[in-house]
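Pilot study result, target chain (384 residues):
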Amino acid sequence: MPAPSSRLQLPPLSAYVHIPWCVRKCPYCDFNSHVSEQGLPEAEYIDALIADLELDLPSAQGRELTSIFFGGGTPSLFSAESLGRLLDAMASRLTFARDIEITLEANPGAFEQAKFAGYRAAGINRLSIGIQSFNAIHLKSLGRIHDDQEALAAVAMARKAGFDNLNLDLMHGLPGQSLEDALADINQAIELGPEHLSWYQLTLEPNTVFYNKPPILPVEDTLWAIQEAGQARLAEVGLAQYEVSAYAQPGRRARHNLNYWQYGDFLGIGAGAHGKLTYPDGRIERYWKTRQPKDYLDPGKDYCAGHKDIACDDLPFDFLMNALRLNEGVPTSHYLSRTGQSIEALTPQLDAALRKGLIEPWDHQLRPTERGRLFLNDLLEMFL
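Predicted structure:
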């Protein structure tokens, strides 16, 4: 594989902020989240995030931030004052795009109305609420700390606090879930009128309670029926699918996540955060921060735990595993501008994928077919 060319361009820049604490660890969760038994070191952690950001500033290379995403864990455990202090520190060190999207993940069982209004006043303009289900029985089986009524109240409180851009996280394929149960969840979500819906199937990930003690999940035929019926219902009400598990009203796609899928750059600060950066010399680097909160807060240890340049031979897969998640794919020109490599080098693989019906003709757009989206892993393996 040839080395990146000088035609590589610096892509848009986002920032991911990881807050690693939760009230309780869910049995399906494989994220870097930790239960805090002795209260949260909130002020100390914000100080560390600011110091971590300081070290990453040169990597911004003068670019403005197009989005910020507070993920976790449960970021809504932190006060609006603390998150506002961090946002002020970021704004004093980096240029924010005029229409910057700032998202906060929130759980219905870890908030109050005054907090939501405070988040909005601090500059957070998008909430992603981890509903998962509106069925009390299914919520209990998932180990969630909220019930169905708290889920409904969370959305009402967010609207009252002034949020006009909401994502709801909803899962399907839950233990004991029927097609009727899954559609009831979707219909309840639709009734709440979210601008965006993340709707994805429960999977049993390694290093989770569910992986070691698997629950009984719906059979394959039921899972397929849920997927088909759910997608049809969401399309019917104008929540258009644009990525494997993302559905949005017109103009309300998640800009932060789009930057990931379009192979943009992102700073990653916080315990266990990951980042991706492009440099003028053609290098593309992925890096990760110290994972354990106690180590991240230890002044004697580095914030950065490791980094790795993406080898030229690995760039096709690294780019396409993001870009081909999008129903519309990306312009073919993105491959050159964001990897520095010529798309012609992939002609044999792309032509083979075209013959198998996995991608559309690729003159101007790298776009999976419906079959390609269904068999995305098979499609991506062609570029390993």
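One observation from the pilot: The chain has 15 helices and 16 strands. A full batch analysis is planned for the follow-on phase.
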